[in-house]
Amino acid sequence: MHMDIKCTTKAKFSPKKFVISKITTNFAASYYKTQCLTGATPQSFATMNNARRKEIDKLTAQIEEIKEAIEALRDEEQEAFDNMPESLQDGERGEKMQSAIDALEYAADDLQECLDHLSEASE
User: Fold this and answer.
1) Contacts with 104 (C-beta within 8 Å, 6 or more apart), sequence order
2) E strand spans, the chain
3) What angle do CA 4, 24, 45 make, to 5 degrees?
4) Residue 72 phi, psi dihedral angles, 5° rounding
5) Which of 116, 105, 6, 19 minimizes the C-alpha distance to 60?
């Protein structure tokens, strides 16, 4: 038994008739219906993927820039801490600076993890 799906579209190509066999899943039927209704082709789906990849690349660049700024702040704070007298490093002020350095390090690490996930997503 076959199910005929006729589609008419305002796309530049002529209307097509898709024959979907009984074995074909509902997903495939939905896919072909979507193609009929939107005029989408496998090439246009690839273009959309490329557009999403470009968006991921833009986000990646922004996150890398933020990560570098955080690392620069961390390095400045670490340098300031290292240049403090040891007596101040061991005091409350030194502890707060070390906490800030640690927090900046964690933030940079978390952003690196985010970059790794974005890289995986764009493969």
Assistant:
1) 70, 71, 73, 74, 77
2) 2-7, 16-21
3) 85
4) -65, -45
5) 116
φ and ψ of 15, to 5 deg? -55, 145
Among candidates 104, 102, 99, which has minimal Cα distance to 66? Answer: 104
pLDDT on residue 121: 87
Q: Any idea where the domains of the chain sit in the sequence?
A: 2-40, 43-121
Instruction: Map residue 28 onto helix, strand or coil.
Output: helix
CB neighbour list of residue 84: distance below 8 Å, 6 or more residues apart: 93, 94, 97
Total length of the chain: 123
User: HEC string of 50-66?
Assistant: HHHHHHHHHHHHHHHHH
- Report the distance separating Cα 53 and Cα 55, nearest Å: 5
Q: How high is the pLDDT of residue 33? A: 52
Residues of the chain with pLDDT under 50: 1-27
